[in-house]
Amino acid sequence: MSEKDKFLGEFEQMTMLALLHLENEAYGAAIRQLLAEQVDRNVAIGALYSTLERLERKGMVESRLGEATAQRGGRAKRYFKVTAQGHNALKRARQAMDTLWHGLSIRHALSQEV
């Protein structure tokens, strides 16, 4: 794993957390809907799949194809889940942010002019 792959970006974290929330129903449209409803983030399906494929290459998520359905024109849904490596990366990311936020009040941190 390269140095860059050790860290998760904000959208990668959101995507992986969405997978955890959706459990066995984590496929493209459901992930997009959850992100739109929970964090008011409208995501293009292409951007979402690019992120999921990158996370899969990093070993953070894995995917499987479901059954083909007539509703989808004979196409199968691709379901995603977070791997053990992905869980560890999310924990590290949360710990890093908690460490950086420690001792700062939100009011103090956000009131500082840049």
**Secondary-structure element string:** HHHEEHH
Tally the helices: 5
Give the percentage of residues in beta strands.
5-15%
Instruction: Please tell me the CATH architecture by its name.
Output: Orthogonal Bundle
Q: Helical amount among residues, as a percent range? A: 55-70%
Number of strands: 2
Counting structural domains, the number is: 1
The Rg value, from CA coordinates, equals 17 Å
**Tell me, what's the shape?**
elongated
Give the N-terminus to C-terminus distance in angstroms.
Answer: 35 Å
CATH class: Mainly Alpha
> What would the average pLDDT be, to the nearest integer?
88
Class of secondary structure makeup = alpha+beta
Low-confidence stretches: none
Task: State the CATH topology.
Answer: Arc Repressor Mutant, subunit A
Please give a quick description of this structure.
The chain is of the alpha+beta class. The protein is built from five helices and two strands; from the N terminus they run αααββαα.
Features:
114 residues, two-stranded antiparallel ribbon, single chain, alpha+beta, Arc Repressor Mutant, subunit A, elongated, 2 strands
